[in-house]
Amino acid sequence: MAEIDWDPRTSEDLAVIESYIARDSLTNAELYISRMLDHIGQLAQWPSSGNYHKDFPDLHLRQVLFKPYRIIYLYENDRVTLIKIHHGARLLDPSQIHPRR
């Protein structure tokens, strides 16, 4: 089973998502984030389940979808490092996805 590490930027991404949804409904925000965390937790069992991110092949990043978000992570040495949670309709700024090693 892989260990999951949160990059501080990814924790910020989650907080921004929750705040955005909470503007309409705190209950929906809490439910959505809870479901997203469950989805992320599955990476501990299936760390190779994500597709390689086609825009950054040299970084060996993977991604899983939790619509409308892309959860971008690095899997190496039995460790999943969450790099970015990004809305799929937005362009990715390459400076936001470089993993910290």
What does this structure look like?
- By secondary structure, this protein is α+β, with helices and mostly antiparallel strands.
- It has one domain: YaeB-like fold (2-Layer Sandwich).
- Helices cover 31% and strands 29% of the residues.
- It has a 5-stranded mixed β-sheet with strand order 1-5-4-3-2.
- Helix 1 packs antiparallel against helix 2.
Please sum up the structure shown.
This protein is of the alpha+beta class and 101 residues long.
Q: What would the principal axes of the Cα set say about the shape?
A: globular
Mean pLDDT: 91
CATH architecture: 2-Layer Sandwich
The description of the largest β-sheet is: 5 strands, mixed
Let me know the CATH homologous superfamily: RelE-like
Give the helix level as a range of percent.
25-40%
Helical segment count? 2
Strand order of the largest sheet: 1-5-4-3-2
The number of strands is 5
CATH level-3 fold name: YaeB-like fold
Radius of gyration: 13 Å
What count of domains describes the coordinates? 1
What is the succession of H and E elements? EHHEEEE
Q: What structural class do the secondary elements suggest?
A: alpha+beta
Low-confidence stretches: none
- Strand-residue fraction? 25-35%
CATH class descriptor name: Alpha Beta
Distance between the termini: 20 Å
For this entry, give a set of tags.
single chain; 101 residues; alpha+beta; YaeB-like fold; five-stranded mixed β-sheet; 2 helices; 29% strand
Topology:
Layout: E1 3-6, H1 8-22, H2 26-41, E2 51-52, E3 61-66, E4 69-76, E5 79-87
Parallel strand pairs: 1-5
Antiparallel strand pairs: 2-3, 3-4, 4-5
Helix pairs in contact: 1-2
